């Protein structure tokens, strides 16, 4: 019995280091690079489209959108694969974003559509689907992100009203 116990102890001393050597020689993949935490705010001018600039896919719920910062703008993408595509040639996609800001139709609103405060040159402005929107503060932008369709309708109604007033 003592011999049996002896050989078990010897086997344990030999097997454990051998097992460790097996795992030590294996390469360990580095963790993926962080993209952006979905809950954190990304600095830059707000993203001007309701679709991904890479694929054209409509952006879904907030927890499905990957937001990056690039050249002072926010870029919203629909998947990690799109991030890799974007990073290969960011200039192509950034040109689309900056052009959206250059060609946007001006904001017809004179008051913040959320709070009702007067809008001025210091108002928080951004472009969405070819329209310039203005809000009194960044917090009102959060309301916009929850229901963009509501604010698109407000913008369109104000633009139609302004056009009708100009024809009088």
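^ Assign residues to that structure.
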């Amino acid at each position: 019995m003592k011999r049996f116990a002896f050989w078990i102890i010897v086997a344990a001393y030999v097997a454990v280091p051998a097992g460790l050597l097996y795992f030590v020689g294996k390469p360990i993949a580095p963790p993926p690079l962080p993209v952006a935490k979905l809950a954190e705010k990304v600095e830059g001018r707000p993203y001007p489209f309701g679709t991904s600039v890479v694929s054209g896919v409509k952006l879904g719920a907030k927890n499905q959108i990957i937001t990056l910062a690039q050249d002072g703008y926010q870029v919203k993408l629909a998947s990690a694969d799109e991030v890799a595509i974007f990073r290969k040639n960011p200039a192509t996609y950034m040109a689309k974003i900056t052009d959206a800001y250059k060609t946007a139709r001006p904001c017809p609103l004179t008051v913040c559509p959320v709070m009702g405060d007067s809008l001025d040159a210091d108002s928080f402005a951004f472009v969405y689907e070819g329209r310039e929107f203005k809000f009194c503060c960044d917090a009102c932008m959060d309301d916009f992100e929850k229901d963009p369709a509501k604010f698109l309708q407000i913008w369109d109604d104000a633009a139609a009203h302004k056009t009708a007033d100009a024809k009088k």
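The two ends are 109 Å apart (CA to CA).
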